Amino acid sequence: MPNDWLMPDWPAVPAVRAVCTTRAGGASTGFYGSLNLGNHVGDQPQAVAANRQVLAGALDAHPVFLQQVHGVHVVELAQETADGGQADGCVTTQRGLACTIMVADCLPVLFTNAGGTVVGAAHAGWRGLAGGVLEATVARFNALAAAGKGASLAWLGPCIGPQAFEVGDEVKAAFEAQDAQAAVMFKPHGPGKWMADLQGLARQRLQRIGLSAIYGNDGGRGWCTVSNPSRFFSHRRDGVSGRFAACIWLG
């Protein structure tokens, strides 16, 4: 794998493998340079296909790509699962299948359990997060796991940081309507504007459902997609942008 890719630092068992790509290592050029994995953003199809082959080769597993729509639907991946199914979360017990979430500012969240028998991933932009995509993914995860063996570890990948994510009153209200404590994740930034901490909101929601072992993104600038243009794609920053991916699989 390219040295620039992120390897989660968490106490998952060795059978659980996970990685988050960056812009490094691909065939795309221009706005999409170089490892764009999104086939829906205007890049040359042959470049995206080559990039996806790079990813599959690095993983030694088959990454399954979803059609993400900022919703809360979660699918279980099987050997026959094709790319392009509409969902924003996925789980699997099958070895060699990588739960794969593409992002370019939204938050990718990876899950596993202490025994390393199930893995899962979720796409958490603010709409999906407020709608309950993390809760839906954990519920589907737990349904696959044996009793008492549900999701116990989560890793938060890079996303738009709290110094870059300006939102309106409606976003703040959507979170506060479900949990008054969410207010601490918004800082005033002018009339009707707020700076939101996306990873902080995700941590709150995971903790509310009893998942406290949360690793990865802590809101620091190094995790911010907008603030690191040479490393991460960012739709908010660039308008036209590629996509990087967070993957988790059972080896």
Gross geometry: globular
Strand/helix succession:
EHEEEEEEHHEEHEEHEHE
Helix segment tally = 6
Report the C-alpha radius of gyration, rounded.
Answer: 17 Å
Alpha-beta classification: alpha+beta
Give the strand line-up of the largest sheet. Answer: 3-4-7-6-8-12
The overall average pLDDT, rounded, is 97
Strand content: 15-25%
Low-confidence parts, pLDDT < 50 over ≥5 residues?
none
Distance between the termini: 15 Å
How would you sum up the major sheet?
Answer: 6 strands, mixed
**Total beta strand runs:** 13
The residue fraction in helices comes out at 10-25%
Tell me what the structure shows:
The structure is a single chain. 22% of the residues lie in helices and 24% in strands. The protein is an alpha+beta fold and 251 residues long. The strands form three sheets. The chain has a six-stranded mixed sheet. It is globular, with a radius of gyration of 17 Å. The two termini are 15 Å apart. The mean pLDDT is 97.
Quick overview:
This protein has helices spanning 45-59, 126-131, 133-144, 169-176, 198-208, 235-238; strands spanning 16-20, 62-65, 74-76, 89-92, 97-103, 107-112, 119-124, 153-156, 166-168, 186-188, 193-196, 214-216, 244-250.
Brief descriptors of the model:
alpha+beta, single chain, 13 strands, 6 helices, globular, six-stranded mixed sheet, 251 residues, four-stranded mixed sheet, 22% helix
